[in-house]
Design brief:
This protein is of the alpha+beta class and 140 residues long. Strands 2-3-1-4 form a 4-stranded antiparallel beta sheet. It binds adenosine-5'-diphosphate and magnesium ion (MG). Adenosine-5'-diphosphate binds next to loops.
């Protein structure tokens, strides 16, 4: 299992000033931030990032949401990073997310769900490269 994953604090959580609280959660869970940058995605970038969902009925709304304001992509380090980060994020739908998870506590809906986390090591690698070049990733 890989040691890195890509996360995003989504525009809903940024605009509600949850950034610090979410970062606090992941640091307290043992993740180390090795890259981060505030970024307002273009429609093209958002469509490319979520290309796997392009046939889904919610795709256009998802692109509107993800481009509605700045978001904060980051790379974090932890043993078995993908699985462990998905665990502290919680289910996609905050109504179904476990107690104490980031989405349960900070998400407003299945769409505006506060954070993204890569779902496999292969996708983590792709998504990290989507946002960061190697010199921007501060691993030791
Ligand atoms: P996850 O982010 O938990 O991996 P998915 O990859 O299935 O979830 O979906 C990507 C994103 O698309 C979700 O985080 C959410 O913002 C949005 N989304 C997923 N399912 C729905 C839905 N049924 N209605 C509206 N938006 C959705
Ligand atoms: Mg996903």
């Amino acid at each position: 299992m890989g040691n890195y994953t890509l996360g995003i604090i989504k525009p809903d959580a940024i605009s509600k000033n949850y950034t610090g609280k979410i970062i606090d959660r992941l640091l307290n869970s043992g993740f180390k931030i090795v890259a981060a940058r505030l970024e307002h995605l273009s429609r093209e970038q958002a469509k490319q990032f979520y290309a796997v969902h392009k046939e889904r009925p919610f795709f256009n709304d998802l692109i509107n949401f993800m481009t509605s304001g700045p978001c904060l992509p980051f790379v974090i380090e932890h043993e078995n990073a993908v699985e462990n980060f998905r665990k502290i994020i919680g289910a996609t739908n905050p109504a179904e997310a476990a107690k104490g998870t980031i989405r349960r506590d900070f998400a407003e809906s299945i769409q505006n769900n506060a954070v993204h986390g890569s779902d496999s090591d292969k996708n983590a690698e792709k998504e990290i490269a989507f946002f960061f070049i190697p010199s921007q990733i501060h691993t030791v």
